[in-house]
Amino acid sequence: MSPLPWHDIDTVLLDMDGTLLDLHFDNHFWLEHLPQRYAELHGVSRVMAELELKPLFERHAGQLQWYCLDFWSAELNLPVRELKLETAHLIALRPDADTFLAAIKRAGKRVVLITNAHRDSLSLKLEKVELAPYFERLISSHDYGFPKENPQFWDALHADIDFNPARSLFIDDTLPILRSARNFGVAHLLAVSEPDSRQGPKDTAEFAAVGDYRDLIAGL
């Protein structure tokens, strides 16, 4: 990966899950813990639980309700917030993410968190990992009513924080979201090579990817 042109970057927009935080927590919760607890609480087999959950997950993926704990609590008749607490010990920073955050803040960059996470998920993670002091704003897509995949999210974000897309860096682990940001005009885009520490590197298609956050600090 080429060094970032930090002299051309004023604003750094950062995703949370899979970008700053290890995606293992979320993957484990949605793919392992939730199906198991769904089976136990609804009195069905684990296989049946997965058969019932899979089409629901597929139907709502990439939409705002996919990220909404209130929606899933009602849809599944489960206390999703409380179930998340049962695995909260898995919430963890990706290696050297805090080193990177401290460096860009010291360099005087404007740093904004933009996440699709529901406010309750965001609060839970901020209780476990001290992220808030690094950011000017902590923005959930639920604040605007559109997920980051939707072009209307970017219009709302621009109206809210008045950033210059041509002088902004955005890092995210989800390719459709990076493409949405690119379509809006965000000039500097990076994917994440290994969002889940237990699953190995992923294909980041046309996007350069960060593997080690220390590599991004060069030239700051």
Low-confidence stretches: none
Main sheet overview: 6 strands, parallel
CA radius of gyration = 18 Å
> Which second-level CATH architecture of the largest domain applies?
3-Layer(aba) Sandwich
β-strand percent reads: 5-15%
Biggest sheet: strand arrangement: 3-2-1-4-5-6
Question: Any idea of the CATH class of the largest domain?
Answer: Alpha Beta
Work out the number of β strands. Answer: 6
CATH topology of the largest domain: Rossmann fold
- Give the overall average pLDDT: 95
* Order of helix and strand elements from N to C terminus: EHHHHHEHEHEHEE
InterPro entries: HAD-like_hydrolase_sf (IPR050155), HAD-like_sf (IPR036412), HAD-SF_hydro_IA (IPR006439), HAD_sf (IPR023214)
Keywords: Metal-binding
Protein name: GMP/IMP nucleotidase
Organism: Pseudomonas izuensis
Short synopsis of the structure:
This protein is of the alpha/beta class and 220 residues long.
Tell me what the structure shows.
With 220 residues, this protein is of the alpha/beta class. The chain has 2 domains: 6-22 and 91-217, HAD superfamily/HAD-like (Rossmann fold, 3-Layer(aba) Sandwich), CATH 3.40.50; 25-89, no CATH class. 40% of the residues lie in helices and 11% in strands. A 6-stranded parallel β-sheet has the order 3-2-1-4-5-6, sandwiched between helices. Strand 4 (168-171), helix 8 and strand 5 form a beta-alpha-beta unit. The two termini are 16 Å apart.
